[in-house]
Amino acid sequence: xxxxxxxxxxxxxxxxxxxxxxxxxxxxxxxxxxxxxxxxxxxxxxxxxxxxxxxxxxxxxxxxxxxxxxxxxxxxxxxxxxxxxxxxxxxxxxxxxxxxxxxxxxxxxxxxxxxxxxxxxxxxxxxxxxxxxxxxxxxxxxxxxxxxxxxxxxxxxxxxxxxxxxxxxxxxxxxxxxxxxxxxxxxxxxxxxxxxxxxxxxxxxxxxxxxxxxxxxxxxxxxxxxxxxxxxxxxxxxxxxxxxxxxxxxxxxxxxxxxxxxxxxxxxxxxxxxxxxxxxxxxxxxxxxxxxxxxxxxxxxxxxxxxxxxxxxxxxxxxxxxxxxxxxxxxxxxxxxxxxxxxxxxxxxxxxxxxxxxxxxxxxxxxxxxxxxxxxxxxxxxxxxxxxxxxxxxxxxxxxxxxxxxxxxxxxxxxxxxxxxxxxxxxxxxxxxxxxxxxxxxxxxxxxxxxxxxxxxxx
Length: 459
Ligand code: UDX
Fold this sequence. Notes:
By secondary structure, the chain is an alpha/beta fold. 46% of the residues lie in helices and 14% in strands. The structure holds uridine-5'-diphosphate-xylopyranose.
């Protein structure tokens, strides 16, 4: 008698933030297309909305109960929140995973092969080990930032901290990490250095996973990937950019589509798109310098101002009337945009970004050069690479000042220097497209990952 094909189930544990959920759901989609059944285990606070879950009808969603109320994130800050989350979630995740194992024993559609967890949800690794389910780490940042964090976590005493506190030390190159300077290392705007180093150390020390999946492509950072594999002594699968391999929409905020109609009326490659992602916060005075720099550049712009992202303002109400009058014909401001669609629109000429890794990949994946104004964490590594290694971005450093903003925008949008950056960005786009096609490096890495997961078993 013919044996019935058995699907293997993968349990995914995303970190509950937009920049982490999106790539995790893209990975889920890619694995589902390869024949795996998917369970997404989310913590109670900030889960995907029901309508988002409706976009993934073949997935199971389960909740990891926590006693952490969502406002806790706002009170203690992201780093403390994550540390706390890892302390308290282990027990409830163990119950949740045990229940899943019981339910799925003998279920043709459900033999769990492994748990894939966001690097910062390290409690999942420990629980999986206890229950004898293999686990794999998923990093939503790039390989270079991953190596930095591991090194910082290992040497939390002096090597990385001391130069940051010396006069002029911030501008020194970090030995072995060219072209990164100490100030480019992934430190956080959300927490004291010591708390962050503790989080990095925990993520590294509690890592029990048998492999690492990373949302990057080897054409972007092949030497960092080799170094990472050597450091970890475990297989590393660079399967990105995942949004190009398996699109999966899961916006936690409502997208304002009026901006697409507005873009339809603009000239090709003329618009500056501005967005600082889902977490970055901006001082009011920086917003004013940015606004006047934009106004003085005379270019049309589409600006995403996320509610609550400007200190002291609910939204954009503190922009002066004079500014609104001057830019009324060529500026459009929204609360949240369908970013990937915006970046693929022919009217967009450059992206002013905080350089979150998703935004970075989405921009170079469309051949759009960037104005880089990183805010926190890995964004500083990404900005330095965009400016110095891939040479498709201009990093704005120091005090934000309208003259400097206007000059940078002209360099990118009007000067020959900008045209050369655009050409390099288009070249990167082609390389990235090739990497996710059959025969490409990321495509191959995904196939290797699939074979690897098939060797894993719940014992
Ligand atoms: C954070 C970190 O900054 C990032 O580097 C890390 O890898 C994940 O966590 P975030 O700051 O939100 O993420 O930035 P980013 O990684 O760029 O992710 C933002 C996502 O929101 C992108 O996928 C982007 O397309 C989406 N977005 C942003 C929208 O859909 N609409 C918007 O208006 C703005």
